[in-house]
Amino acid sequence: MRRACTLWLCLGLMFFAAPLAAQARVDQNVVYGMYSGLALLMDVHHPAEPNGYGIIQIAGSGWHEPTAYGARQLKRVPPQIFLDAGYTVFTINHRAAPRFRYPAAVEDAQRAVRFVRHNAEQYGVDPDQLGGWGGSSGGHLIAMLAVMDGDGDPDDPDPVNQASAKLQVVVARAGAFNFAVLFDNPWPASVVASFLGAPLRPGDPTYRAASPITYVTPDDPPMLLIHGDDDQVVPFTQSEFMLAALEEHGIEARLIRIPGGGHGANDAPETVRWLNRNLLGDVRAEALESLLEAYSYLSEGGRLARAGDISDALQAYQNARERDARLTIQALSWNLLCWRGSLWGRAAEVMEACERAVALAPDNGNIRDSRGLARALTGDRAGAIDDFEAYVARTRSDRGRAQRLDWIAALRSGENPFTAEVLDALREQ
Question: Which of 38, 265, 352, 428 is 20 to 30 A distant from 229 in Cα terms?
Fold first, then answer.
């Protein structure tokens, strides 16, 4: 008995003496500024193994949000690849049209950079080497942080405002960089007019003042541009204009053209490669290559799953998992494999992906819906009904709710609601 107690005591001492594994965490709703009583908020995403560098992230919104208390926040969750690579990510809200016009959003973005730079020691990041990433309207704002001077005011009583707002490397995806030309496209023209403050006339100097292309100078930082050449929202030519301006001034720049890509087209591994090379240096960047290769496998797996090549998609996911232990496959990636694999008749083979997706996001109705489909197709009627009911309770789609209620009724009556015609229709959605 004494020997057993001694053994458990030793095990306990070993447990408490062992260092705790590093944990990723999020500081939510950090106030980075106040504007007339309005709090400007950011979320700070800390990686499990920080590399000492920070990234400012600005999500796309068309510079607009509804003037309602229930309006969504802009500080979205960053791509997991940033955190796996060790970056501390500061994702921000900013004032938005129609209530707040240009230059409010630009000023808020600058304030966010100044806040991070002033508090760099607290967040464990290098104040002299801050990066930025943004898409769509966020791509416009992040580009402004690269090309505008951003000098701090040494006489400002707020020490945050004394810091510089200029970034040292940026990635801008599907951004608007030359508003005068963008006005040739009717739909985005109306959005831009609202952002800048209507009514404006062609040739109005505000177009030029709000365009990143206006401010490019030889001392600007390296900039990576990513754009789908079938973007129906912001024309691909916008990034071509920006690339030409950067190269004319001798700035290190590159444009990744994604053939057939729409407004959401992206290249996450190349984004991180660009940040790594310009922040970490060659040696540390090389140490992350296997992680980026793992993400490339994962991206390819997603493409294959959408196309219905489920066997190859499963292999790509497996290659990704084996390539680098730092890889984190998020719920939405597992869910993509679950949903598409089920639609293409491979529900049993993708069930592990379904379970992983639900385990990571148990309250996500769409993910429960995907597992419900897989369960139904593998004969688990009770489980399918449970998942479809969870979807119905959470969805805002009247059409989706009605469709799932029909499926639930059919499953309860012993019928199979998933005919070949139904599955074909779902594939087309």
Answer: 428
Beta-sheet pairing, 88-92 with 130-135:
unpaired
Of 93, 55, 102, 56, whose CA–CA distance to 74 is shortest? 93
List the beta strands (DSSP E) in 54-160: 54-58, 88-92, 130-135
Q: DSSP assignment, residue 221? A: P
Q: N- to C-terminal Cα distance for the chain? A: 66
The DSSP 8-state label assigned to residue 64 in this structure reads B
Determine the pLDDT at residue 185: 64
The continuous run of DSSP H or E covering 276 comes out as none
Q: Show the CA angle centred on residue 216, arms to residues 74 and 260, nearest 5°.
A: 60
Q: What is the pLDDT of residues 242-271, one digit of tens each?
A: 999 999 999 999 999 999 999 999 999 999
pTM of the model as a whole? 0.89
* Rounded CA separation 400/398 (Å): 5
Where does 249-330 have alpha helices with state H? Answer: 268-275, 282-286, 289-307, 310-323
> 182-220: per-residue pLDDT in tens?
766 666 778 888 999 877 776 789 989 999 999 999 999
**What are the tokens at 266?**
């992206």
172-180 average pLDDT score = 94
Q: What are phi and psi of 98, to 5 degrees?
A: -85, -10
The Cα 276–Cα 4 span in angstroms is 52
Dihedral sign of CA atoms 112, 113, 118, 122 in order: positive
Domains (ranges, CATH) in the chain? 25-287 (3.40.50.1820), 330-428 (1.25.40.10)
- What's the CA angle centered on 84, arms 292 and 326, to 5 degrees? 75
Is residue 343's pLDDT more than 60? yes
CA-CA distance, 5 to 30, in Å (whole number)? 48
- Listed in order, strand segments (DSSP E) in 174-264 are 223-228, 253-258
286 secondary structure, DSSP code: H
Residue 278 has pLDDT above 90, yes or no: yes
Per-residue b/e over 217-231, b at no fewer than 16 CB within 10 Å? eeebbbbbbbbbbeb
